[in-house]
Amino acid sequence: MLSLSIGPLALPVAPLVLLVAVWAASWLAARLALRSAPDGGTPAPTAMAGNAVINAALLGLLAARLAYLAVEADLYRAAPWSALDLRDGGWFAPAGVLVGAGWLAWRAWRWTALRRPLAVAGLAGLVFWLAASALTRLGMTQAMPSIMLSALDNAAPVSLTQAARGRPVVVNLWATWCGPCRQEMPTLAAAQQRESAVGFLFVNQGETDAAVHAYLASQGLALREVLLDRGAQLGPAVGSQGLPTTLFYDAQGRQVDAHFGVLNAAALASRLRQLRATR
Questions:
Q1: pTM score, two decimals?
Q2: Residues 279/200/67/106 CA torsion (nearest 10 deg)
Q3: According to the per-residue pLDDT averaged within each range, which of 21-30, 35-44, 231-240 is highest?
């Protein structure tokens, strides 16, 4: 599952899972510290245990982001400020786990009484995060869904697999009323013009031919391979309840990555690099 609908809002699942894991680990550390205190517990060590877990998570996130930026540094040179755009989903999780665990180990070494609470809570939080992240991916379709669409230019029916034509493809789910979709569309359009080895399929969700034609004309977007998903079936099929959603498939039709929310140029370039490597 990529996103979750709460009323009119669609929220990305991955950060929600992480937030719950950190909160649960912090609560567990505080409870264990309270129970293990000789005098029945005092507010100070209890708060220190919970805060240590939260600080470990924050430092881990910082390390994961910096490690990702270091690996992909060349992609951010053209627009350095985009490194602050956390919506691009650029994180190197192993670095974050190592730094977070290191912080907890240091705090446990300094606070002897909190060694067991911090060790148990840290491990429990990590296991919960990994298990919950794996469970959210169980319902996601890794193979390209066999959903029938229609081409915008001639209204011909075509399946998603037929439109891919055996190429690595970027499949963008969008709508004219979606603000984030409109924000990222020029970046995707420019990439479509540049890329020769990767196809771009722009799958409009639930709108009419006239609405899509009018929007593209008003924005001066010369997109190729625009498809209409009149029943808006593709989003639920891939586990996304919101827009924009961008999927990355290799030449065999296997999903290699997915992103919910706005893609900036650096994030798109990073995923295209990964997609080309699958050929």
A1: 0.88
A2: -100
A3: 21-30
